[in-house]
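Technical note accompanying the year-one report. For the benefit of new consortium partners, we illustrate the data format agreed upon in the data management plan: each record pairs a sequence with a structure-token string. No post-processing was applied to the example shown here.
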Amino acid sequence: MSKTPVFEQPLNERVRSFLRFQFLFRRLDHHVNRSSAWDTHTALSTLLEIINLTTRFDIKSEVMKELERQNTAFQQFVDEPSVDGQRLASIMTRQKELIDRLHGQKGQIAHLVKNNEFLGMVRQRAAASGSTCSMDLPIYQFWLNTPIEKRRAEIAAWVLPMQTVRAAVDLTLEAIRKSSAATEQLAANGFFQQNLNPARPLQMVKVSFRHAVDVYPEISAGKHRFTIRFLEHISTAKRPEQTKNDIAFLLTCCAI
């Protein structure tokens, strides 16, 4: 992890689900590229989390809507002299390509679990703590000890139907993250508050620091404003407390 992490707070359910989806895929990438049976177990468990997320929230439909919305919003900047027209055109072309590919992808992206008996068994057992051990699911333990090349190839095949959605989510979040520049802010006694503009709804708030600090932000948002409290984490045995120090930080209010 970075010494100066970026803290992101989504301000709507669509972006919240996109962030969770991206986070899970990054975790899957980390573990699938390692060779131990424990890493493969974590990779597959993460894949099942992705499937569960896409079952509860129609990621494919939502990311198509967001790509179309962003593409329409970007149209107004095409002839803007201050905008990098070549880069904007590249992004808009990529958005349209992904929209077309998603339109051509029939059904839910998690349909693979319904058609794969092995994944279905593991998913059912994984719902109960410790139930994927060898005494409960010997076929899973057998699979975890097959050659790593075989395990990786099968996971790649299971993930393949989701790769277009993943690319679309990544492109969407990249555009949101880069939609605004960071500004220097100061939280007096560890507290900061800012009103929201109804005419320009924010999609995400980002907090970062120029240097490593001993606090972390707790961000909450309502209809009219968002607040940031900077908390001190002294010990895992104690409840975090709001710092009494003034905290300098970088704030990015992202909106397209």
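Partners are asked to follow this layout when depositing records. The longest strand covers residues 225-232.
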